[in-house]
Each structure stands twice: as C-alpha cells, then as structure tokens.
Amino acid sequence: MRIFRAQAYVTLKEGVLDPQGQTVQGALRSLGYAEVDEVRIGKFIEIKLEAQDETSARRAVEEMCERLLANPVLERYRVEIEEDGA
Amino acid sequence: MRIFRAQAYVTLKEGVLDPQGQTVQGALRSLGYAEVDEVRIGKFIEIKLEAQDETSARRAVEEMCERLLANPVLERYRVEIEEDGA
Questions:
Q1: What's the ipTM?
Q2: Which chain B residue has its CA at the smallest distance from A69's CA?
Q3: Using alpha carbons only, how large is chain A's radius of gyration in Å?
Q4: What would the pLDDT profile of A9-39 be if each residue is shown by its tens digit?
Q5: Domain spans of chain B?
Q6: Where are any strands of DSSP class E within chain A?
Q7: Which residues of chain B are within 8 Å of residue A50 when distances are taken between CB atoms?
Q8: B32/A contact by beta carbon, under 8 A
Q9: Would an 8 Å CB–CB cutoff place A9 in contact with chain B?
Q10: Which CATH number fits domain B2-83: 3.30.1280.10, 3.40.50.1000, 3.40.50.300, 3.40.50.720?
C-alpha cells in the first residue's frame, strides 16, 4: 500500500445563497475593503490515506465526498491527489 | 480597475489539534474507510475583487487574511489570484 494526500475542495454550487460569505463580505466592507464584490466560503479537506494507486485513492476520496464530506444537492467538489513524499 | 478572483486557503498550522478533522475521520472510519490516516479541515474562500493589477489584488487579499479571514496564531494561509475572464 502507498500513502497519498488528497485535497478536496467543497464549494456551494452557483446560485446557492451563501450567508456566511455575505457576512464576511459585510465585515470586509466595514473594514474598508470596498473593492470586494463577492465572497463565497467553502471547505478545504486534507485527507491522508493508504491506497494501492492514485486511481483508487481518487475513487475512494470522491466516494467520501459523495457520502459524507459534501452535500451533492447544494455543493460541488473537486479532488486533487498526490503521493506522500513523492 | 480590473476584476480578479482570489482563492484563499486557510489551514491549521502543523501541530495544532483539529477536533473537526478528528470527528470527520471517525465518521469516515465508521463508514468503513479504515484506510484514512488523518483528516484536517480548512477553509476555502473565494473573493471577487477590483484592483489595479495582480500584485495589488494579492496584497489586498493577504491583508484581509491577516486581519479577518485567518487567525495568524493558529492558522496559515495561501492565496492564489487569477484575472476574471482571462
């Protein structure tokens, strides 16, 4: 088994309201950053896992996103994989 | 003024306990993913902003990270900038 590091980016789909992002945008504006047009907040999940190869590591992490890490109705996700120590 | 899209990744520093990540790891294990060694959870912040050029866009977003988006004591951040529509 080899060790991989996966990075999963989970973001709200286009068109889904992001109240947390709006709150941060308001806070940035009140700090004086009037140049900010939009803020959207997502999750960034780093997973260290064992797998036979990169393909099966990616498949496992995509399945984790579908089952637990993301809500496929509202969110989309993107997975990047690299071998640990490679 | 030009429009830029910034992506800021905010993660806990090495050595800082991540209870949210540990909880997710436990949930993944109870779903059968015994191959998961570690999970760490961070924030992924997308900011659309106006700036004169890429350098000043990056400087503004790094300052936002220092002042609001990250806690520099516990977290580190990385910023990527691209021009909108480029």
A1: 0.89
A2: B24
A3: 17
A4: 999 999 999 999 999 999 999 999 999 999 9
A5: 2-83
A6: 2-12, 36-51, 75-83
A7: 35, 37
A8: no
A9: yes
A10: 3.30.1280.10
